[in-house]
Design brief:
The chain has 3 helices and 21 strands. With 299 residues, the chain is mostly beta strands. The chain has one domain: Tachylectin-2, Chain A (5 Propeller). A hairpin with a 6-residue loop joins strand 12 and strand 13.
């Protein structure tokens, strides 16, 4: 959400123009994101991305409609809208899929006090075959195993989250830690019900994580995030089971095109390219970027 990055930048006294110049100057123009297209005004707060049958799907975050939008990757227009009728968009943040279901994480928690965290589970056949562009969802309700207080603490807790992946038979949530700039990893069943999410790992990402993806072909987990220096992606490979931090960790700082939105919120991949969406931010329009994976250089 716009206020999240704004608050962080105020705290670190780093304005947009300063941050962009830092990114470009420090990295000697490596890892440049390519602007694919501006996005339709219907998705000015695009917060998650996933390809399903080669169609790019996104949605808006907190306060947006409870709908998924298919996006034309050439011109950014919305080509299809599917409403999930029995849900509310409190703070939808990320999306993932397995062979049978779409999972939408309604777990944005800026104040650290939510007790209604939920993942919506939508049948892929229902989504693809609906005759009236509406579907219903099942619910996976959860809380964090190590959260003991729910007092409001704006932008100062480790129980905010914007990222989820499907890996084997479980879901994994990567938190956005405002306190220590790490990302804790919680595992959760894919079964409908109410559960306590178990903390299984933690990564010292040195920033705030806003999206995640698991590539089943390469068995790579990719995280999208930002800190006071730049936007970045982190690739996790060669891990065993869900011990993500014990594998190979590569971090790549990203260069945002000049006069373009730095509010990167969605991440997915197709044909060896990462696709990244950014919300409308400080007068810069919502936009879809991409970068070839093979062109990334570690910093």
């Amino acid at each position: 959400m716009k206020k999240l990055i704004f608050c962080l930048f105020c705290l670190i006294s780093c304005g947009e123009s300063t941050r962009n110049s830092m990114v470009i100057d420090d990295l000697d123009n490596i890892n440049n994101l390519t602007k694919v297209t501006f996005l339709d005004e219907l998705v000015d707060e695009s917060s998650g991305l996933v390809f399903l049958n080669n169609d790019l799907i996104t949605f808006n975050d907190s306060g947006g409609n409870n709908s998924l939008y298919e996006i034309d990757t050439i011109n950014g227009e919305v080509t299809r809208t599917v409403e999930i009728t029995n849900t509310t968009n409190n703070d939808w943040e990320d999306i993932t899929t397995d062979s049978e279901y779409i999972y939408i994480g309604d777990f944005g928690n800026n104040y650290g006090n939510r007790q209604d965290l939920v993942i919506y589970k939508v049948s892929i056949p229902d989504y693809l075959n609906t005759s009236d562009n509406t579907v219903v969802a099942e619910q996976i309700n959860f809380s964090y195993s190590d959260q003991t207080t729910f007092q409001s603490n704006p932008y100062n807790s480790n129980f905010d989250a914007e990222s989820i992946i499907s890996f084997n038979d479980s879901l994994y949530i990567f938190t956005k830690n405002w306190v220590d700039n790490k990302s804790n990893v919680y595992s959760l069943t894919k079964n409908v019900g109410t559960y306590i999410a178990s903390k299984v790992d933690s990564l010292d990402v040195q920033g705030l994580i806003t999206a995640a993806e698991h590539n089943h072909t390469s068995n790579t987990v990719t995280l999208l995030g930002y800190n006071s220096d730049s936007n970045f992606v982190i690739e996790l490979t060669n891990f065993n089971d869900s011990n993500f931090s014990q594998g190979l960790v590569n971090k790549f700082q990203l260069v945002i095109p000049e006069n373009s939105s730095i509010q990167t919120e969605g991440l997915t991949s197709l044909n060896n390219n990462y696709y990244i969406s950014a919300e409308e931010y400080l007068g810069n329009s919502q936009v879809l970027y991409k970068i070839n994976k093979d062109s990334l250089l570690s910093n």
